[in-house]
Amino acid sequence: MDVIGNNIANVNTTGFKSSRTTFADTLSQTLSGASAPQDNIGGTNPKQIGLGTGVASIDMLFTDGSVQSTGKNTDLCLSGNGLFVVKRGSETYYTRDGAFEFDAEGNYVLPSSGLYVQGWTATDGVLNTSSAVGNITIPATT
Prior knowledge:
This protein is mainly β. It has one helix at residues 2-9, and strands at residues 19-25, 28-32, 47-50, 53-60, 84-88, 91-95, 101-102, 108-110, 115-119, 122-123, 126-127, 134-135.
């Protein structure tokens, strides 16, 4: 019920990924085993009594949501299993929320939290993806 309620409550939340619950038997008891077919009768299945189920796991589903135009050229969306990398100081976070914008200093940020969006900087049009990522910054020109 918690997982379903969470999925419904966040259906319109930007970047939200729904979850699913899988269940497993907690215990089952076998009353009689299976039997092989004989001359006049077919085989029988085992008789078991289940003694309940429990939550085996809650899995996040990384299926793509619907892409919607926001009319804002700084917003991004992801397709597939990717995540955006955002950072504050030495703390690194991962998000599917691509509602970004530039702050007053030209830093590309997640405005709800002020986290800096991370990426590689191109030098003379060449992107070196083996280098360390850093804050994406586009300084405003005067």
